[in-house]
Structure formats: C-alpha cells, structure tokens
Amino acid sequence: MAKDTGESLFFSHSGALPCKNIYFESFDELSYPLVKAVGTPSTHTPPEVLVTNRGRPGVERSNQFCYNLLNKYPSLESVAFNYPFIDDIVEGVCALDWGGVRGLVPWKLFLLISTMPVITSHEVRVRTWMSERHSRRLAEALRLCAEAIESEFRKRVT
User: Fold this and answer.
1) In this structure, is residue 55 part of a structural domain?
2) Which of 21, 84, 96, 101 places its Cα 20 to 30 Å from the Cα of 11?
3) What is the pLDDT of residues 35-60, one digit of tens each?
4) Does the reported pTM lie above 0.70?
C-alpha cells in the first residue's frame, strides 16, 4: 500500500461505463484517504487501434432500437419488471460457448447494449478497454442480443 506522496493520480472516464468498485480503503497518518480502485484497467489511456485499409471492413450494426428502449433503465433487473424476455435473452447469450473464455457477464452486456447507438468491435474496445479479441466476442454477443430483443419486442408488444 502506497503512502500519500503528494502526487496527483490520473483518473480518466470515457463516459460509457461507470467506474467499478472505487472505495476508500483506509487513511494514512495525515488523514488523507487512500483510494483503491478494483477492476480498473492498468493503463491510463484507451487502447490505440490501428486503422488500416487492409482486410475486410468491420461489421457495424445500428442499435438505435435497443438504445432508445433500454437507455432509461439503470439495470437489467429493472428492465425485467416490464419486459421479462429481455432478461432471458441477455442471460441466454451470456450462457453461449464463446470459444474457451469464461461466460460473459450479463450486467456488462446490458450496460453496453443500453448505451451504444451503434455496435462495432472498435467502439466496444474503446468503451471497455478489453483486448481486440475479447472486444470482437463482446460485439458479436451484443449484435445477437440486439437482433433477438428487437424481433421479440416486435412479436410480443406490437
């Protein structure tokens, strides 16, 4: 645990995802709080993504329907009261086999799908600071969620 040296720490927030588990752990002898940030990235800047004109273009899907529908809800549990099938869809997509990685987290998927008007792996990577490979998996899961939510909503509600 580091003591207070008078240095100012750089915290950045892109506005997409809220900071996770930041709390005051203890106080040192000068009564300055020592802040412990759990689950935050080790780098202070978003990952740099090389944009080249080689290879096939990335898949881009408009998420305007889910963005407008889910943006007003703070959590997946609050959506489940009005639209219980959305909870089932997100949980089901998280339970799929994503090639050897542990299952995806439902609240992260919901947070991303409710705050992204357009789904691309680049946007997911900038918002989550995950690796390129994991960002592609998350983007594919988000596209599956968005398509399923949109089709189920149109079948059930309209």
Assistant:
1) no
2) 101
3) 444 444 444 455 565 566 677 777 88
4) no
